[in-house]
Amino acid sequence: MIVGDGVKIYSDAFYKAFLSLGHDVEHFVWTKYLHSSGRIKRISAKIQNKFLIGNRIRKLNDDLINNVCDFRPELVFIYRGQYIYPKTLQIIKQYGTVVFGYHNDDPFKVQSSFLQKDRFYLKGLKFYDWIFAYRHKNILDYHQLGMNNVSLLRSYYLAEDNYPIENLEDSVYSCDVIFIGHWEDDGRDEMLITLAQAGYSIKLYGTEWNKSKHYLQLSQYFGEIYPLRGNDYNLSLNSAKLALVFFSKMNNDTYTRRCFEIPATKTFMLSEFSEDMDLMFKEGIEAEYFRHIDELLKKIKLYLHDDDLRKMIAKKGYQRLLTDGHEAVDRAQEIINIYWQIK
User: Fold this and answer.
1) Which residues of 82-106 are buried (b: 16+ CB within 10 A; e: fewer)?
2) In Å, how far from its chain's centre is CA 263?
3) Tens-place pLDDT, residues 20-68
4) Is 134 helix (H, G, I), strand (E, B) or coil?
5) Which end of the chain has fewer surrounding CB within 10 Å, N or C?
6) What global pTM score does this model have?
């Protein structure tokens, strides 16, 4: 049983991956408990969702218990279990099921409210048979809590959504450089402005860019900044000569989902440097990296002027991606391997 938000790239990706591996799978989606129609009910649902209190959260947990009782799964995989009471975990384990947990954000990052979003998840950790960490840093966090049943489960790409488009003619997204991602106050906005001022053709898409103190200037260079999804997301990556990767500093990331989605399109990847990234894609061979703005400018200039070298590195990055296995089905198989290991 997969438990989560039902979003295509999150819990739904695992649901479909387990199905493709031949397993009998149920998908418990909690989204319906967190939304409602009508002004009063909508406000009530929003408050309960924000503070994890009220009848909707209780109903979600009760229904999960009933679903486990009816389906009797061998394994329950909970994707970001912020809404799941520790008591619920205790009860469903009484049905003989193994319970795994996965959190793609950093549940240990400092949060301002005493009613922080991950409090149920953190209190319930002791009831999980295994925890999968999205990043290396969180493995250490779990170990500090005395948990040894922890391993890394990286993000992934979806082969049905992220793929190369051969013989692509110019599209509305054609450009020298593209960045698709959210804004953070880490200087990425200033770097993109510098690139635009250098005369490069740049496309920028994503969320929360209106929070940047440079938003007016960003708008002058990039126009309206909005998120891309589905076919538009894949087409845009295929249409760029070079795609940038910035890490989330808030989540202490050393890699991100896009470091798989970009090579999946055979597009050249230029990422912030981390040793973690260099282990997956070798610098100057399967991808390229920058450590500061000067190196970013230097490498963009180099690879935009050398089409053959850029395409060769992009092709090798694509081959490395396939060889190492970073698709959602590969992650599902990693989960099954751990299941048999602890059984």
Assistant:
1) bbbbbebbebbbeeebbbbbbbbbb
2) 15
3) 999 999 999 999 998 877 888 888 888 888 888 899 999 999 999 999 9
4) coil
5) C
6) 0.94
